[in-house]
UniProtKB/TrEMBL annotation:
The keyword Oxidoreductase applies. One of its GO terms (molecular function) is FMN binding. The gene is nemA. This is N-ethylmaleimide reductase. CDD domains: OYE_like_FMN. Keywords: Oxidoreductase. One of its GO terms (cellular component) is cytosol.
Length: 368
């Protein structure tokens, strides 16, 4: 029978650092809110990830590194033994299905609510500036609470949360970790001058605002080899919390990326544009130029289709592509793209909560 598959290097293996991928189609991190109150992954999470194991790499849904780091109920964690055991079932099953999976390490910072913070305390942030967003609490969406600024002597405790979560990720059998430094959660809140008004060594200059991210990378790479650690950044997104961009995106992110080079990480992952919305880049910002400052492999994301991925890959602008929403409704996305099979459209109702419905019930195409 003639092989009518689409020819592109995107379907060929690649190594991101020391993580070997069967193809260059990556599943983007997707919060799906199907986890219990304790943040322990369960059987339907196992099924969901196994269904998508033909991705070259699965980046897990954002996973809380601590109770304080949590902003959304029903999201998983990676700081307790039960959570580690729950994730172990996911990683074992994904590996048995031939896939690779890294965990996205998440601290939401100011995007949280007193109702879900330990002891009903305020969420923490670089500065006491409220996020303009809803977060998900036990009684449904509520406006994010006013955060309090972290004291300088609390920062080592934040870094320790990342280190501990990285340890737990190792015990849970992941192939590596992705440091979530995107979408204006804690780490990006520190980086941007719009959300960081500190006057200590973690605020003010670019070097100071990048300091926490680099200290987190340092801590995580003491647990994992750096070539199993990736990082996600989103220099031009207002998501989440309607956060203004940094006043000098090129200088700030350029500095950060050059510092990251020292670690020789597995990959850099950008959300290009406004997360899940558009690929519009404000004037004066050139994401390809920023990306090219990075010495290692690069994953591009945001509103890609296969055609755009092929052309940007051919131009040398991406090494791999991450798809988010298409992976929700097409568990066999790689096969569908490879054989030109029509994609199922995702509906927003399926995104969060609701058990198996809209989660594990998307059929695979069988006609190739
Ligand atoms: C339901 C949903 C959940 C998401 N959860 C996360 C997340 O946990 N971590 C993250 O970094 N991005 C998250 N994102 C953003 C996606 O990873 C991705 O950047 C975005 O959907 C754009 O890619 P796409 O056009 O291929 O969908 C989420 C997006 C959606 C639609």
């Amino acid at each position: 029978m003639a092989d009518n598959s689409i020819r592109t290097e995107l379907f060929l293996p690649i190594k991101l650092g020391n993580i070997s991928l069967a193809n260059r189609i990556v599943m983007a991190p997707l919060t799906r809110s199907r986890v219990n109150e304790e943040g322990v992954p369960n059987e339907i999470n196992v099924t969901y990830y196994v269904q998508r194991a033909s991705a070259g790499l699965i980046i897990s849904e954002a996973t809380n590194i601590s109770a304080q780091g949590r902003g959304y109920v029903m999201t998983p964690g990676i700081w307790t033994e039960q959570q580690v055991n729950g994730w172990r079932k996911v990683t074992d099953a994904v590996h048995a299905a031939g896939g690779k999976i890294v965990v996205q390490l998440w601290h939401v910072g100011r995007c949280s609510h007193i109702d879900i913070q330990p002891g009903g305390e305020c969420p923490v942030a670089p500065s006491a500036i409220k996020a303009d967003c809803n977060v998900y609490t036990y009684i449904g969406p509520q406006e994010a609470s006013m955060p309090r600024a972290l004291k300088t002597d609390e920062i080592p405790g934040i870094i320790e949360q990342y280190r501990h979560a990285a340890e737990c990720a190792k015990q849970a059998g992941f192939d590596g970790v992705e440091i979530h430094s995107a979408n204006n959660y804690l780490l990006e809140q520190f980086l941007r001058d719009s959300t960081n008004h500190r006057t200590d060594q973690y605020g003010g200059s670019i070097e100071n605002r990048a300091r926490l991210i680099l200290e987190v990378v340092e801590a995580v790479t003491q647990v994992w080899n750096a070539d199993q650690v990736g990082i996600r950044l989103s220099p031009t997104t207002p998501e989440v919390g309607n956060s203004p961009l940094d006043s000098n995106v090129m200088a700030t992110y350029g500095y950060l990326i050059q510092q990251l080079n020292k670690f020789k990480l597995a990959y850099l992952h950008f959300v290009e544009g406004a997360t899940g919305k558009n690929r519009t880049i404000p004037e004066g910002i050139d994401l390809d130029a920023l990306r090219s400052l990075f010495d290692g492999p690069y994953i591009g994301n945001n509103n890609y289709d296969l055609e755009m991925a092929i052309s940007r890959h051919a131009e040398g602008k991406i090494d791999a592509v991450a798809f988010g929403r298409p992976f929700i409704s097409n568990p066999d996305l790689v096969e569908r793209l490879r054989y030109g099979i029509e994609l199922a459209e995702v509906n927003n109702d399926a995104y969060y909560g609701n058990g198996e419905k809209g989660y594990t019930d998307w059929p695979k195409a069988n006609d190739f």
